[in-house]
Amino acid sequence: MAQAESEKSYEVSAEKFFKAVSEYENYPKFVDGMKNVKAERNADATITAHYDLSMMSKDMSYTLKIKENPAQGEVNWTLVKSDFFKVNNGSWKITSTGPNSCKVRYALEVEFSFSVPSLILKGIVKGSLPTMMNSFFERARSL
Question: Superfamily assignment of 2-142 in CATH?
Answer without folding.
Answer: START domain (3.30.530.20)
